[in-house]
Amino acid sequence: FLSSSQMWCASICPASLPPFIVPLRMCMTNCPTLIVTVGLPARGKTYISKKLTRYLNWIGVPTKEFNVGQYRRDCVKIYKSFEFFRPDNEEGLKIRKQCASAALNDVQQYLGEEGGQVAVFDATNTTRERRETIVRFAEQNGYKVFFVESVCEDPDVIAENIVQVKLGSPDYTDCNTDEAIEDFMKRIKCYENSYQTLDEDLDRELSFIKIIDVGRRYLVNRVLDHIQSRIVYYLMNIHITPRSIYLCRHGESDLNVKGRIGGDSGLSLRGKEFARYLAKFIQDQNIKDLKVWTSQMKRTIQTAEALSVPYEQWKALNEIDAGVCEEMMYEEIQENYPLEFALRDQDKYRYRYPKGESYEDLVQRLEPVIMELERQENVLVICHQAVMRCLLAYFLDKSADELPYLKCPLHTVLKLTPVAYGCKVESISLNVDAVNTHRDKPEVGPHCTAWGPVSSNMRSVPVLSATCTLGLELLSRRISDRWLLNRGDILKPVRLDLFPHFVFPAE
Amino acid sequence: MNTYSFFNVTMASSPRELTQNPLKKIWVPCKNGLPDRHISQRRVCMTNCPTLIVTVGLPARGKTYISKKLTRYLNWIGVPTKEFNVGQYRRKCVKTYKSFEFFRPDNEEGLKIRRQCALAALGDVQRYLRDEGGQVAVFDATNTTRERRGTIMSFAQQNGYKVFFVESVCEDPDVIAENIVQVKLSSPDYIHCDTDKAVEDFMKRIKCYENSYEPLDEILDGGLSFIKIMDVGRRYLVNRVQDHIQSRIVYYLMNIHITPRSIYLCRHGESDLNVKGRIGGDSGLSVRGKEFAECLGKFIRDQSINELKVWTSQMKRTIQTAEALSVPYEQWKALNEIDAGVCEEMTYEEIQENYPLEFALRDQDKYRYRYPKGESYEDLVQRLEPVIMELERQENVLVICHQAVMRCLLAYFLDKPAEELPYLKCPLHTVLKLTPVAYGCKIEYISLNVEAVDTHRAKPEVGTFRVSSGMLNLSWCLQASHLW
């Protein structure tokens, strides 16, 4: 059964529940964390909130951001002018306070009932008084608090911020550019007089990071635990310099052509053609200081070789290890490992190949790649289908359920350019034919059968019915191929292929 | 979706063929079957120009502790690093230390000698980074004046090094007192002094620096790259991190602490495959292995360790071992044993029989050798780095792991180089207790007195492998492989 901490626990007999299974993510944090932004308007608080939320979710820490400005927009349907934010505007103050409270209530719900682990409270929080309120709220609820302040006085940065994200805001849809800028600058002024920046002495008991001048300098105080340490490391590696990231797979390989997964084969003729076209494409793009990364598998390196530029090989970019299924065709897997085949379709993200990896494992091994991609500027990453799906999911904020089904066809380059709070994606096909290696998520229902989707000569595979409770339990143990325990008994290996009669339901 | 059309594609010269280095299983471009050019051994993303790390701070602020620890960490992750302690140069030059008077700011003779020592150290830095393949040099001295730091900056600029300052600021008298007790009293400077005299002299030594101390300032030194560590990690100021290695250094420094604690390392109990002499796999514990697990449980209880965390791999044998402790534990996939690829579950004799070349290559360079479709020790270190980082953050931890994994972790704590790492002795049924002390680690071997097979293979003497007539080009392969 699925424990409250998202870990499958074995239990043939529920009474013998092992109480000592520690969820894998334990070292992340035991009590929830409340991240609180601090700073004047247009200092990148929402940018940071959204980015941090995206990163934490990707590495498997359930996180959600709560933007108080959104609550205000929901409450005050139409934004009139900066006057709403004047410090002497009683009505405005009242509404803003209510919105902050509403947001905190939702935080409480998220962290308490919805399984959230981190909540990002995105607002100006510029006064010590407001921050104290939040700290008390956190204390009552048993949350750890970590403040993230952004301080910046560079007028160019602020102006660019306004252009990128404020002009397009719902607040200014009916304004022309000059009016909008003028109003926004007055809005900032409303906060300036009462702004109490986080201070090394006055706030020395708090845990925080103060980001100065978009990362030129950082002040870090009292990092309490692992998750705060990871947050600090992440925030210190991101930047806002415009750049593009190019993702593509290796050219079509010999094993691709044979419909076999994994392995370490070389490029087919069409794959080599793609490599040449990729070289021309890259040349034409005229990218400044482009770095090229590949995996350590022959097919990505062969592809990079055609570019005639230096490239770096990362073992971390190697394709997902299919373990015992390496170099098999999907039909062969279905034939030889029908249970594995079915399990994978049941939960493709967490499913680990026997003696292999899962997408979940991939994300963990790709984290240093993502960290370095954040540090870098223009990069071309030549990788593999599963790997590219993981990287893409990070940039496009796709959930674990969607990730294994993202479309990453051969011979297509994805150009990602950060813009506003997200990422612009351009998909560029280089017009070289290749096989299609994509398998859609099969249709599954509690009482129906799944049909192998790749080719017509594949047999149908019965899906494990949700009505078969025992099967579901054994199934759940097997999905992540973890050794789970049954207290009061010897360790039971989760070798479901030995007990096929438990797994396939009557239909 | 855009399609990119080509009408005039200039055919580039045909791409180079690839060949796989037999040792590391890395694909490199080649001509006529031989590697085309020397693939730089530079680790992914590490900087091209060398980095000079410069410590800053009054005496007894932990500069040497930080220097040594950082050097150990960087070397372990594969960045050739060396520390240059100016105090050491001074001790070589001025054979006998008399008193703090040497450090008085008005002692002309003393100043001259100290300056010479700093220059001598910088000369060695230059040699290390230019001729000896070094990538990072840690220049460990007080460097408390802007003038001295300016000299170092000029030196670095002339040589094309990036500079990163690491300053330690601390005014907590308890911390300083503990520092003196741990590392100063036993220093060669104070060998012939009694404790009280040594402490008194050292406090006066610190005073000599205080008046001229110019701490790194966010404004005045705004153009420099540095981290200022305040109160042993309570607070950090980080300025202008330039590149990947500096970012990693900052992350590391922000995760270490000096709270006393112990780290316990051991392997799983003897497994069924161990008994059969087979490597790898995912078998359960043998009868003796289970006995060890019980003994381990008792041992841990007797140690009465404060808030012990227990970590295992995701392999059955380590988990079974942890289960006997009846305490919560965390499973790390990163702690899984080295993947022996095609050789999984084979005996060494079978490997030698079926893969004689692989067998020989492994003995040639056991650290870098990667099993076909498997891993190398070098790969292991990379995957264990997050474990080390978390071990640094934690306090009392018991890590139940595997032979190759334990060797890697041990090499980190005991500062063992890559050549020695794969041959470190990590026998079954033995717990290693590591306790940080002074600049290093105290190690206690505790055998739990449960018999087990011996899985250790010592480094074979060169030339002892049998070369049959079918392997005439074996020696060529072996010689050539480590050149690329």
Automatic annotation (TrEMBL), chain A:
One of its GO terms (biological process) is fructose 2,6-bisphosphate metabolic process. InterPro entries: 6Pfruct_kin (IPR003094), 6Phosfructo_kin (IPR013079), His_Pase_superF_clade-1 (IPR013078), His_PPase_superfam (IPR029033), P-loop_NTPase (IPR027417), PG/BPGM_mutase_AS (IPR001345). PROSITE patterns: PG_MUTASE (PS00175). Substrate binds at residues 249-256, 299. Transmembrane segments: none annotated. SMART domains: PGAM. GO terms for molecular function: 6-phosphofructo-2-kinase activity; ATP binding; fructose-2,6-bisphosphate 2-phosphatase activity. Keywords: ATP-binding, Hydrolase, Kinase, Multifunctional enzyme, Nucleotide-binding, Phosphoprotein, Transferase. Residues 28-242 form the 6-phosphofructo-2-kinase domain. One of its GO terms (cellular component) is cytosol. The active site is at 250 (tele-phosphohistidine intermediate), 319 (proton donor/acceptor). In the C-terminal section; belongs to the phosphoglycerate mutase family. This is 6-phosphofructo-2-kinase/fructose-2,6-biphosphatase 4. It comes from Scleropages formosus (Asian bonytongue).
From TrEMBL, chain B:
Transmembrane segments: none annotated. Residues 46-260 form the 6-phosphofructo-2-kinase domain. GO terms for cellular component: cytosol. Gene3D superfamilies: P-loop containing nucleotide triphosphate hydrolases (3.40.50.300), Phosphoglycerate mutase-like (3.40.50.1240). InterPro entries: 6Pfruct_kin (IPR003094), 6Phosfructo_kin (IPR013079), His_Pase_superF_clade-1 (IPR013078), His_PPase_superfam (IPR029033), P-loop_NTPase (IPR027417), PG/BPGM_mutase_AS (IPR001345). Substrate binds at residues 267-274, 317. One of its GO terms (biological process) is fructose 2,6-bisphosphate metabolic process. One of its GO terms (molecular function) is ATP binding. The active site is at residues 268, 337. Keywords: ATP-binding, Hydrolase, Kinase, Multifunctional enzyme, Nucleotide-binding, Phosphoprotein, Transferase. PANTHER family: 6-PHOSPHOFRUCTO-2-KINASE/FRUCTOSE-2,6-BISPHOSPHATASE, 6-PHOSPHOFRUCTO-2-KINASE_FRUCTOSE-2,6-BISPHOSPHATASE 4. In the C-terminal section; belongs to the phosphoglycerate mutase family. This is 6-phosphofructo-2-kinase/fructose-2,6-bisphosphatase 4-like.
